[in-house]
Specification:
Blueprint: E1 2-6, H1 17-30, E2 35-42, E3 48-52, E4 55-61, E5 64-66, E6 69-71, H2 73-83, E7 88-93, H3 96-104, E8 111-115, H4 123-139, E9 142-145, H5 148-153, H6 155-158, E10 164-166, H7 181-191, E11 197-200, H8 209-216, E12 223-226, H9 232-242, E13 247-251, H10 255-264, E14 267-270, H11 281-288, E15 293-296, H12 302-305, E16 312-315, H13 320-332, H14 334-351, H15 354-369
Parallel strand pairs: 1-2, 1-7, 2-4, 7-8, 8-9, 9-10, 11-12, 11-14, 12-13, 14-15, 15-16
Antiparallel strand pairs: 3-4, 5-6
Helix pairs in contact: 1-15, 3-4, 7-10, 8-9, 8-13, 11-14
């Protein structure tokens, strides 16, 4: 079986959560006999073809970008050509240009959409895009919600109830590097030990890091923020205004350093406060490494990963006082925190392995093929 994935960004040019999910899908379904290809865009200016983790990645130049909507005229021709050899086309939503490309390339193969998120921020543009979005979602053969929580809370998905399947994202820990002792020692020395809260992610508006910073005014616990992004300087300036010397911004790190920090940290702090955070891959990574979690109830997959009172604590969104209280509870109750971490890891093995995800997707692909 040949599956073609289509999304606007991918490794090695971009390292976000959607890219990680596509990579995990490709690696895990390959073990079940699927041959995967990924069609994506590049800002480098030239088309190329590379091999990553056993699957082929086709990159075509991006022409321009409007409101995070990347456009590539060459991608339409490439999609049409690659689709001829594919058994299933696997789209990753949202990306308005993708919807248009689907129709312009005249795709007639079985098609599935992984619905990563509602469109939350661009309200005005959403009104213009709405008719195309509805036509696209009506035309594809299956839509995948990434958690029962998101399906239940998405007004868009409810309209397509008959074709929606729920398949949670999954990760394969064996694809992550082993923690290197020298790196563990480096971070212990740099951070003064192993008792710190950790955030990992791209620094975007919906990650709620301003809420975490405001919460830290009340606390003196060490916090490590890993990642770069469009609001990094704004967040650094806010932390400086608040005098938060115990909050460390370490910027983007490679996978070896990330694994070292996940191994060492005391707990995960994940303050995302808007529905743009549809799942939370770095939150799931924390569970995979057996860490208790603090997150906000936003009606998405974050609360499917983090079950309040079992794997960590869930607080109301945009509430620094509640977030601070949850951090204090975990910090002052290490036995409870350790038990929550054990249950988080057990929940990962039960629900969120790449093996589970791959099996469910391959079953869906086969159904679509008839």
């Amino acid at each position: 079986m040949r599956v073609l994935h289509f999304y606007k960004t991918y490794y090695p040019e971009s390292w976000g959560g959607v890219e990680q999910v596509i990579r995990q899908m490709c690696v895990a379904t390959a073990r079940l006999g699927v041959t995967n290809e990924v069609l994506t865009l590049t800002r480098a200016g030239t088309a190329d073809r590379i091999e990553i983790d056993g699957h082929t990645v086709h990159r075509v130049p991006q022409a321009f970008e409007v409101a995070s909507n990347s456009v590539s005229f060459g991608a339409i021709r490439k999609l049409a050509r690659l689709a001829r050899d594919a058994d299933v086309i696997h789209y990753h939503f949202p990306w308005p240009f993708m919807d248009l490309a689907h129709f312009l390339a005249r795709i007639k193969k079985p098609s599935v959409v992984t619905y990563h998120s509602d469109i939350v921020r661009q309200k005005a543009l959403l009104k213009l895009y709405g008719p195309l979005k509805r036509r696209f979602l009506a035309d594809v053969d299956a839509i995948v919600a990434t958690s029962p929580n998101y399906f239940a809370s998405s007004e868009v998905l409810k309209r397509y109830n008959g074709k929606v399947h729920t398949i949670p994202f999954g990760l394969d820990k064996s694809t992550y590097p082993q923690p290197v002792p020298a790196l563990l020692d480096k971070w212990r020395e740099r951070l003064g030990g192993e008792r710190f809260f950790l955030f990992v992610g791209v620094l975007r508006y919906y990650k709620g890091l301003h809420i975490l910073l405001d919460a830290m005014v009340q606390l003196d616990y060490p916090v490590v923020i890993v990642g770069a992004g469009p609001i990094e300087q704004e967040l650094r300036a806010h932390a400086q205004r608040l005098g938060l010397t115990h909050v460390r911004f370490v910027g983007a790190v490679d996978e070896d350093d990330k694994v070292a920090l996940l191994t060492l940290c005391y707990a995960m702090a994940f303050p995302s406060h808007l529905r743009s955070e549809a799942f939370g891959i770095s939150l799931l990574e924390g569970a995979m490494y057996g860490k208790p979690m603090i997150s906000s109830e936003i009606g998405t997959g974050t609360t499917y990963i983090n079950n309040h009172g079992e794997t960590g604590l869930v607080v109301p969104p945009s509430d620094p006082d509640a977030f601070a209280a949850a951090m204090r509870t975990l910090w002052e109750n290490p036995d409870m925190a350790a038990e929550m971490g054990r249950k988080a890891e057990a929940r990962y093995h039960q629900l969120f392995t790449a093996e589970n995800m791959a099996r469910d997707y391959v079953d869906l692909y086969r159904k679509l093929q008839g």
